[in-house]
Predict the structure.
Amino acid sequence: MAFDVEKLLRLWTNPLPDGPAAEDAFRTLYTDPVVVNGGSLTAADMVARARALQQVFEAPEREVLDVAEGGNKVAVAFRLTGTQIGPFGTSAGVLQPTGQKLSIRVIDILTITDGRISEIVMVADELAALVAIDAARLAPASG
């Protein structure tokens, strides 16, 4: 299986068309609904997430770090980098715009069904990104 990782990343970082065409663009790569980290999301949900992500970064850069394929699974490790101009939702809360370069490493494990992504397990290294821009620190060890 030769999965088009670049097409997938472009879908998330390039401007989306208006109206139903945006959902249709997601349906070319994803089932509708798709399971993401155990929850079911529709194409409309995915478009909303992509639009929110696109508001975070100015001139985002994508760097594929590695791809592994086997059976109906594709694992993609990549880095998404750009100047943070919009709010960024993290597990620790919302990081308001910093104007700094933010770089996030992500690993997506994709399940492919009939040529489209039907399930995603996604992990992002938010902590390293926050520490790098001094938005988070480890507390000193108490002794």
Q: What stands out?
A: The chain has a mean pLDDT of 95. The radius of gyration is 16 Å. The domain at 5-132 is CATH 3.10.450.50 (Nuclear Transport Factor 2; Chain: A,).
